[in-house]
Amino acid sequence: MIRLGILGSGSGSNMQAILDAITEGRLDAEIVLVLSDNPDAFILERGRRANLPCGLIDCRGLSSRFPAESQEETTRALREAGVELVCLAGFMRLLRAPLLEAFAGRIINIHPSLLPAYPGLHAWTQAVEDKATESGCTVHFVDAGMDSGPIISQATVPVLPGDTPESLHARIQVEEHRIYPEAISRVAAELQ
Ligand code: GRF
Questions:
Q1: Which atom of ligand 1 is nearest to the CA of 91?
Q2: Mind telling me the catalytic residues?
Q3: Which domains, and CATH codes, for the chain?
Q4: Ligand 1, from 110, 140, 148: best to mutate by most atoms within 8 Å of Cβ?
Q5: DSSP string, 32-84
Q6: Is residue 176 within 6 Å of ligand 1 at its C-beta?
Q7: What digits encode the pLDDT tens for the residues 44-94?
Q8: Whether 4 contacts 83, CB under 8 Å
Q9: pLDDT tens figures, 91-105
């Protein structure tokens, strides 16, 4: 049973998928901490509803940077909760030392494209605008770059004629919810 810490800034549907996989016995894990940099993020509401320990990351009013002191506080909170694997689930800030060093090889992310294509924000919008014929999602280890660490698993979806960014993102998310718990299970098996 691996102890997970989840970091998210938005809806938290991937955290929900991880929780569902645990509840249904498909993933031998426990979510021991949910952290968000956004007090209004629905991921915190989902966490509270599931009685998970939740906390806020104070980014000192900065809209996109992740200040060093906030990363130190986050590291401390994850350590105190006994987190063994950090799962980013829609977390919108770039991680740096000391967080990366404290959890070296133990931080993973889900990204809505077939990396290395379309790193960064709005990957699904770029896929539609480029008239790509397929897209998908990637689970990868996190390093200091933008969506650039070693790939753990990927799933492909078609981009259909008439797709909007929203319809493509919805199709990608179905696959995200399937592969993220599976990837966590694989990484956990290798770590333990
Ligand atoms: C997902 O599309 C994920 O790939 C990206 O941000 C989105 C988060 O969605 N990193 P949710 O908060 O898990 O619903």
A1: 10
A2: 111
A3: 2-191 (3.40.50.170)
A4: 110
A5: EEEEES-TT-HHHHHHHHTT--EEE---TT-SS---HHHHHHHHHHHHHTT-S
A6: yes
A7: 999 999 999 999 999 999 988 999 999 999 999 999 999 999 999 999 999
A8: yes
A9: 999 998 889 999 999
